[in-house]
Structure to design on (304 residues):
């Protein structure tokens, strides 16, 4: 019932969030909701040509990719889902480990009759993308990962010692009660502390995403906390993936100068054998908001 309610609210939420004036997708992009095992995934699709999948992370939705999608759609079919439990996708009780969410990606592509893709991912999207690429390597041609670690891979244990990452262990009924009605305050902390300049994550975007993370149904913030709660299982799964072999497709490791920076390449060289490295200047974690021009250029150059 909760999944049905989430999907039924999508049309209303699309109308209300549009007023926040975040960058919009080109008019030729269509939206639909696709059933996957255990979830309903909201997807934007547009353009023509070889397929590219764009996966967002925490604190945002697929809407973050609008400027890149517009550029890529000139020569690609661009597929932009909201991850399970985020945005306009459903909020199921479980399935937040990244292997299960990789299954969501596979089901979306199967429904769209798309076989091989390039992947561009950010933050938690990196984790879902890695599980998809490691589990079905024959379907991924190129893989660009933006500013976010992989549980259990490379310097993961050292990364966990960073005091700014306390939210990895923040969750449970009491934490959810603390955040209820204060979603914007909680999310502002991410947008402020992980930016090189918080003003570059503008007010319209903050209102837009805060509204989506405070959906008027049970489970909206809970689903986000579940993404982090699954990290222990994700680390187990990722270590098993690495033990089976390194990713062989070309990989672009993109870090924000004031965030992961060159550490992104360190992480990915522990899981892939063909890694290129780019550091985006004048940017923290929110690359598409803080320096979209340099970020889009780096990704387009890599994919082409």
């Amino acid at each position: 019932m909760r999944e049905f309610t989430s999907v039924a609210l999508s049309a209303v939420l699309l109308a209300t969030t549009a007023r926040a004036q975040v960058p919009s997708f080109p008019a030729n992009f269509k939206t639909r909701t696709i059933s996957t095992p255990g979830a309903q995934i909201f997807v934007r699709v547009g353009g023509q040509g070889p397929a590219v999948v764009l996966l967002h992370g925490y604190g945002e939705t697929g809407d973050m990719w609008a400027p890149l999608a517009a550029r890529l759609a000139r020569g690609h079919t661009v597929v932009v889902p909201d991850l399970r439990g985020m945005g306009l996708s459903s909020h199921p009780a479980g399935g937040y480990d990244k292997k299960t969410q990789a299954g969501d990606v596979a089901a979306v592509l199967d429904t769209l009759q798309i076989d091989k893709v390039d992947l561009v991912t950010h933050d938690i999207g990196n984790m879902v993308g890695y599980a998809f690429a490691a589990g079905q390597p024959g379907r991924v041609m190129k893989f660009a990962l933006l500013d976010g670690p992989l549980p259990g891979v490379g310097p993961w244990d050292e990364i966990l010692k960073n005091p700014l990452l306390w939210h990895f262990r923040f969750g449970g009924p009491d934490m959810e009660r603390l955040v209820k009605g204060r979603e914007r305050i909680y999310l502002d902390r991410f947008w402020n502390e992980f930016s090189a300049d918080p003003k570059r994550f503008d007010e319209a975007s903050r209102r837009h995403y805060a509204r989506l993370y405070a959906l008027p149904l049970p489970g909206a913030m809970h689903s986000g906390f579940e993404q982090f709660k699954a990290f222990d299982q994700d680390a187990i799964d990722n270590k098993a993936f690495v033990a089976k072999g390194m990713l062989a497709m070309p990989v672009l490791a993109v870090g924000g100068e004031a965030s992961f920076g060159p550490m992104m390449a360190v992480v990915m060289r522990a899981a892939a054998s063909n890694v290129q490295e780019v550091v985006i200047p004048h940017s923290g974690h929110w690359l598409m908001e803080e320096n979209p021009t340099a970020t889009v250029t780096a990704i387009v150059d890599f994919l082409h």
User: Anything to note?
Assistant: Confidence is low (pLDDT under 50) at residues 1-19.
